């Protein structure tokens, strides 16, 4: 699987970018040239030798804040995505196999989660569990999990009715065997796509919660927080949001590229296309608009 | 409705070995309680060891339901099913799994593209029924090789994916997969209708060999010609009922039920229109009434 | 079942017994088809003449070039395929001289086709009757009400039991056999002189297949429609056709009157097809019955 992804150009680009981002997250805070929290007398300064990316409205070094914030930002959005994955995908797959009652209960729970107003729920849970990045991200993850539940359930359903699963059942295979052997490979690509999306959304959520004082507390920097604060000073420093925005964009884009690559190498759609070409050279372009009665 | 096909096969006339499959008065219903529809009405059928029974039915006749009921994929609402002497009518999931793992009954689907997992190699698909039973992989692969040989495929295919095989090859893989547990009974649901004529003949030849080697076959198809060429006995399923049964020669040569007559008259032959159009139109109207 | 009289049907009413000497409505002369992408010739010379009220059959497995030949006569070859040699004449007009506008005029009105998998040629979100009426309004310039009446007549002409009901139904409500009839009704709506049936009965049950084949034979007799029947099944072609072409790998292996080809096949491939049918067809049982 990994080898097949790396065989694609898009796959290689995605993996390269994500590796850089991961390194940033791990090593970024160590490389920060200045104290990210230290203010100075030069607010909103331009690029200079001492401040490569200039300073923000309190005169703090932007580069240092970006590097320092990378760990929290990346970990935060990953936390959201992983929580959503575990809370959503596992019951999503099992809902197809564990009988009517389980299916009914999980479906109603998911409906409830979708219906809950996000911020109210977040504030309520923070009040219960205490304020902190982890709590905030767990809450967000749970709230995003219906996406994973739905995606994995739909993918599993389409496989569960397939003949090869029935063939396995007729051979006496257990549910565990069927999920491991047949379902997993089919459910993985759509889940990967959802995962990449969620990571992207995670950045934005981390920052919007920061704005409300939930999760990461100012003045601690995050990418999303930087973007939000820079936006307020567009008049004085129009290019200020470019750096954090580019970082977020690159990460989200790489995530989506990777998801696409996973889908391309493991998807049934691509393979079916090849099959069709091989099996029926005689019937090219079945979708060609042929005149049934000369309607056009 | 003529009498149900309970006549034992000619081969075991002296001693009547116990049947591998015995279906008695089977009713199957479909759908939610309020809009239940009956798919099978009192179907009775018995298959002796090493016998090939053909079941002829068209879309909506209930033929797939019959196959699925025999394999425990849909529940029976009345009647009984005995597989190798074991009454499976009231079996729960666990008992079914135990029965299936013994590999007594196997199933071959119509569409060989969809009955093999597109993400698994041919080897993985072939050995699955054995791995499920806990047979060691090496031993299972050994058996897979001999079976590929039996269905006239080279073992070079083992590492391929189903998408890389032709329709005929895939169907032969599906047959090999069904045989890997050395079943006593194989149910085949339209095994040749997705294939072109050369591949169809090849599969039919393989089925004939199988029948001769002592495996009992239930061969379900809408194609009278394919079934009649392979089966010892033929039964006609129409709107959920078995309307006629007998040797292939009797059913095709002197059909009694109006539907069977239409079926025989409709099958295209090289002799041109066998039954003329007016006669077919008459039979259709008779059946609609 | 009420049989509509011939004049209910659009198109010309031809004399009951069309003679072979009538000038052909479709004439295919040594047609070769090349895949421009690879530069390979896929079909190596197909020729036949089709007079009104007659039927030509093309038999071959997938990849034999039978479908490409049909598509060439309809002017709908897939991208980068072209007729590299030979001529096709529809009703005396060489199709290579046709402008797109003339093609549009010709399709449906003179030459028409039905294919396998009828559902994919109908719009699932429009009532099937309305789709036939659309053909009538575009091709024959009928008013809305007239088109509707004619569409119902056509549905009756293809032996659908309750044409009024079928008119108002959607594709998912109809069986494969019914859909194929609807498609045939649409195909003959503008009164074509030639109908190409490419594997039109392949996916259907045996009894339904016979119904469709009977319907085609009926139309041919009543309206003088000329048919090209393409199938992988020799017997389907034998049922309906006056002349047969046996194709394999883009080559016509054998061609002649159906009786001759089936009775005294010369090519080994034809012999093989016949032998396969003798073994896994009903012939042996029926012959036994005839010679007790």
Automatic annotation (TrEMBL), chain A:
- Source organism per entry reads Streptomyces viridiviolaceus
Q: Could you tell me what this protein is called?
A: ABC transporter permease
Q: Does the keyword Ribonucleoprotein apply?
A: no
Q: Per its UniProt record, what CDD domains does this chain match?
A: TM_PBP2
Where the record annotates domain ABC transmembrane type-1, the positions are 74-259
Q: What is its main location?
A: membrane
Q: Where are the transmembrane segments?
A: 12-32, 74-97, 109-129, 163-179, 191-214
| Cellular localisation | Cell membrane
Spell out the InterPro entries in the cross-references. BP-dependent_transpt_permease, MetI-like, MetI-like_sf
Automatic annotation (TrEMBL), chain B:
- Give the matching SUPFAM superfamilies: P-loop containing nucleoside triphosphate hydrolases (SSF52540)
MF GO annotations = ATP binding
Database matches in PANTHER family = D,D-DIPEPTIDE TRANSPORT ATP-BINDING PROTEIN DDPF-RELATED (PTHR43776:SF7), TRANSPORT ATP-BINDING PROTEIN (PTHR43776)
Ranges for domain ABC transporter come to 23-264
Q: Which family does it belong to?
A: Belongs to the ABC transporter superfamily.
**Top-level taxon:** Bacteria
InterPro entries, per this entry?
A: AAA+_ATPase, ABC_transp_ATP-bind, ABC_transporter-like_ATP-bd, ABC_transporter-like_CS, Oligopep_ABC_C, P-loop_NTPase
One Pfam entry for this protein is oligo_HPY
For this protein, the record's SMART domains field holds: AAA
Give the keywords, sorted: ATP-binding, Nucleotide-binding, Transport
Question: What is the recorded name of this protein?
Answer: ABC transporter ATP-binding protein
UniProtKB/TrEMBL annotation, chain C:
Q: Which residues form a coiled coil?
A: none
Enumerate the InterPro entries for this protein. AAA+_ATPase, ABC_Ni/Peptide_Import, ABC_transporter-like_ATP-bd, ABC_transporter-like_CS, P-loop_NTPase
Disordered: annotated segments: 1-24
Show the ranges annotated as biased composition (Low complexity).
14-24
Task: Identify its membrane topology class.
Answer: Peripheral membrane protein
One GO molecular function term?
A: ATP binding
What name has this protein been given in UniProt?
ABC transporter ATP-binding protein
